[in-house]
TrEMBL record:
This is LacI family DNA-binding transcriptional regulator. It holds the Pfam family LacI. SUPFAM superfamilies: lambda repressor-like DNA-binding domains, Periplasmic binding protein-like I. Residues 1-41 form the HTH lacI-type domain. PROSITE patterns: HTH_LACI_2 (PS50932). GO terms for molecular function: DNA-binding transcription factor activity; transcription cis-regulatory region binding. The keyword Ion transport does not apply. SMART domains: HTH_LACI. Keywords: DNA-binding, Transcription, Transcription regulation.
Amino acid sequence: MTVSRALNNPSVVKEATLNKVKSAVESTGYIPNKAAGALASSKSGLIGVVVPQINNSMFVETVEALRGCLAQRGYHVLLSVSDYSAASEVDIVSSLMSHRPDGIVLTGVHHDNRLKKIILNSSVPVVEIWDSTPTPIDMLVGLSHDKIGEAIGHEIVKKKPKHVGLIWAEDSRAQKRLQEIIKVFKQNEINHTVTQVPSPAKMQSGRTGMQALLATEQPFDVIACSSDTLAQGCIAEAHKQNMKVPDDFSVIGFGDLDVAEYNVPSITTVNIDRIGMGQQAANMLADRIEGKYPENPIVNLEFTFKRRESF
């Protein structure tokens, strides 16, 4: 019983006794059985986090902020990658539930109905991140990609372009932004050409998308990309084709990744608070697990334009 107290609630154990227990744990290599502890206490201390990709800092910074904040609150993260697949997300969450997580963090708001049933039947607190909806599964800390797309469209219109090229990834959040950009273009009679590239977005995809636009032999005043990674690839291909940005055309990205500021030329983009998103989601989830219900379960973050050399 004393050992149990020392491991699970060390503040109630005398320092000398606690040191003896720590020494024994270290010398024997003992690992507490968290599964058994979860059954006894109804808490596992685990948070399941599902993201679509981790090959760029777009999601990594949010996850790291989330992990750090949850660690301070006494929770550990189980991270899984869905590869932008709704079916994979269902399988991942099903597997996570076998570990009896105290909470779940999901990326986006578009999920398979099977996943929603699994979560609702489990009564596990959930925070959705990176997107926005008035009807989240439970709680949400995200962004309105519709508003971002509209804002990007109006920012491009200010330059009075004759023709705009768009290099765009296929994921749902990027597509929301694209739909709103095109609405603004139609309202302002701006001609445009879209080339779609697979998700996750890679620098090579930006180069391939740029090649596809150039193959149309259409002169472009502006090229908009659904991410800074694609914008970097677009600029690299332009350089290879002896074209100069922004002299021959302007480029705008999304996400304000590190590469955007240090690329040559530096990339104009949309800045979002990726770290703040992770921190707010972590604290909202931890509070909910600990019985504190948020006054506002839906948090929509702001965004700003970072104007740099490319635009």
